[in-house]
Amino acid sequence: MNDTRAAILAISIVIPLTAFTLWFSDQSKITSLADEKQIKTLVSFYPLYEFTKEIGKERIDVSIIVPTGMEPHDWEPRIQDLQKMQDADMIMINGAGFEGWVDDFVTNNPNVLVVDTSEGIELMERSKIYEHAESNKDPHIWLNPILAKKQVQNIANGLMKLDPEHTQYYQENANTYNTKLDLLDNKIRTELSDCSKKDFIAFHDAFSYFAKEYDLNQYTIVGVDANAEPTATTLQEIIQKAQSLNLNIIFTEEAVNPRVSEVIADEIGGKVSVLSPIEVVDKNSDYMRKMEQNLLSLKEELCP
After folding, report:
1. Cβ-based neighbours of 9, under 8 Å, separated by 6 or more
2. If you classify domain 39-188 with CATH, what class do you get?
3. Which of 10, 229, 242, 302 has an alpha carbon 20 to 30 Å from 43's alpha carbon atom?
């Protein structure tokens, strides 16, 4: 009888102690996770947001500097934007002159890590120069999946520099996303290889890297400034070019007035379609999906 009482007493002590130990262990894990500060990261526009989010995942708090619906080419930071940037741990930029404000910011804020994702990429010259351009280099590297892979690695390198304890984590995530970019590249390369045509007319000068990668010829209505208005002479030249190349589609973009493209399309008896530079954030922003939509739009023109 005494033995039974002793056993019951022992069990009554051990069970609560075990439960407390397990509870304390779980609470320690939760506290440890909560204590890990997320890296406050800003990016200049949407593609970099997706790239950075896929690499940093829960270890970062990432947001886009340029407001929704605004063209990033011409955006200039306001006082409240500068304050937000100064409070960031790091800022991801496209580089190649895309962010005209960055040099002044770096000069005045040397303690904020700014990662130029164009580093190590051979840049092309702009085909058309406009008076407000910060650089004569073409910044639209993200529209070429092969170059986007280099941007992804540059982002991973930046995160590893700031948070070296999690180097393997960032590199594995970068490798995973770059595998998706490889699949995208293969899809584009394979599906365009069967097309009989090589020429297309984009709205603004955004697809030079893409065209070079996939052996296409890009013509544009305006230069690198998507908000520019073409002259009557330019319109006539584009109409004649479209006719000489036997083109049936004139491309526009989500964030511009399609009127100019519609005028040209009417003159050649064609139609207007969207070819997205993936610059302006909207509720449907998704890099991979936008790139696949671009592929479908191009195939309609190039693979009749």
Report:
1. none
2. alpha beta
3. 229
The predicted-structure confidence for 74-101, as pLDDT tens digits, reads as follows 799 999 999 999 999 999 999 999 999 9
At the fourth CATH level, which superfamily is domain 194-302?
A: Nitrogenase molybdenum iron protein domain (3.40.50.1980)
Residues 48 and 90 sit within 8 Å (Cβ to Cβ): no
Residue with tokens 């209505």: 221
Structure tokens at 221: 């209505």
The span from the first CA to the last CA of the chain, in angstroms, equals 93
Beta strands in 110-160 (DSSP E): 113-116
- Gap between the Cα atoms of 139 and 161, Å rounded: 24
Q: By the 8 A CB rule, do 201 and 250 touch?
A: yes
Helix (H, G, I), strand (E, B) or coil at 4: helix
Q: Determine the Cα–Cα distance for residues 228 and 246; give it in Å rounded to an integer.
A: 26
Closest by alpha carbon to 201, among 143, 172, 242? Answer: 242
Three-class SS of residue 102?
helix
The per-residue pLDDT for range 98-118, each reduced to its tens digit, is: 999 999 999 999 999 999 999
Q: Up-side HSE of residue 89: CA atoms within 13 Å toward CB?
A: 16
From CA 292, how far away is CA 179, in angstroms rounded?
16
